[in-house]
Amino acid sequence: MSEAEEQRWVSVMLDKLAAQESRRRAPGDAELAERAERLSAQYFAGRARPATVRWVTNQNTRWGSCTPAEGSIRLSHRLKGMPEYVVDYVLLHELAHLLVPGHGPDFWRLLEAYPRTERARGYLEGVVAAERLPRPPGTRGE
Ligand SMILES: [Zn+2]
User: Fold this and answer.
1) Which of 14-28, 61-75, 127-141 has the least mean pLDDT?
2) Calpha distance 99→10 (Å, rounded)
3) Which pLDDT tens digit goes with each residue over 16-55?
4) Model pTM score
5) CA-based radius of gyration for the chain
6) What is the pLDDT of residues 102-125, one digit of tens each?
7) What span, in angstroms and rounded, lies between the C-alpha atoms of 77 and 139?
8) 121 CA to middle of ligand 1, Å?
C-alpha cells in the first residue's frame, strides 16, 4: 500500500467510525452539543465546556439539569418544539451552572449576557401556568 492509499484508507475508516458513533447517540444529541458549544462561545467566551449534553425523557418537573462534577447537561424532551430562544435559554442556564453553582447574583449576572433571558423565563412560566388551568369538559388530559 502506498502512503497516499494508506491515508485514504485511514480517512475512510475514520468517517465510518464517526458515522457509527453518531448513530449510537439518541437523535438530536449531536445538534444539542453543537448548540451548547456555540452558545458558550457566544455568551461565556467558551468557558463553559460540558462533557455531555443530551435530551432526556425522564425529567418532567425540570426543564434542564446539570451535574458540574461530571460536566453533564440534560434537557427535558418537553422543550422540543418550543421556540429556539427558549431552548437556548435553558441550555445557557445549565451551561452557566458549570461556571457558577446555585442561583445567586453571580449566576444571574452571567445570564444577563443573553438578551432574551427574561422573555424565555416568562414563556416557561406561561407553559407551567397553562398546564395548571382546568381542562375544558370533554377533553382528555395526558
Ligand atoms: Zn439553575
Assistant:
1) 14-28
2) 38
3) 877 766 555 566 899 999 999 999 999 999 999 999 999 9
4) 0.76
5) 20
6) 999 999 999 999 999 999 999 999
7) 23
8) 12
Q: Which residues contact 102 (CB under 8 A, 6 or more apart)?
A: none
Backbone angles phi, psi at 49, to 5 degrees: -125, 90
Q: What is the DSSP letter of 113?
A: T
Q: Do 36 and 95 form a contact (C-beta atoms < 8 A)?
A: yes
C-alpha distances in Å from residue 67, one per residue of 52, 72, 122 = 10, 5, 25
CA of 117 to the centre of ligand 1 (A): 13
pLDDT of residue 3: 86
Helices and strands per DSSP (H, E), number in the chain: 5, 3
Which pLDDT value is given to residue 140? 59
What Å distances lie between residue 10 and 17, 20, 90, CA to CA?
11, 15, 39
For residue 26, the CA-to-ligand 1 centroid distance in Å is 24
What would the grid cell of residue 84 be? 429556539
Q: How far is CA 139 from CA 34, 79, 142, in A?
A: 39, 23, 10
Alpha carbon of 93 to ligand 1 centroid (Å) = 6
